[in-house]
Structure prediction request, 59 residues.
Amino acid sequence: MLEHYFMCPHCWEEVSMLLDPSVSQTYIEDCEVCCNPIEVNVSFQDGELTSFDANEIGQ
Prediction:
């Protein structure tokens, strides 16, 4: 697992998520600070993070 830090698009606090480098995926996870839903889109290539987007739902 890879820990990745980013800014929540709702509360702008720095939060972290554990990402599985064996799979690229899009999913929804709640912010650990404000509990609002975040759409997360991650891509990996050869176990390296190549893309990470965290957006408000519908954005």
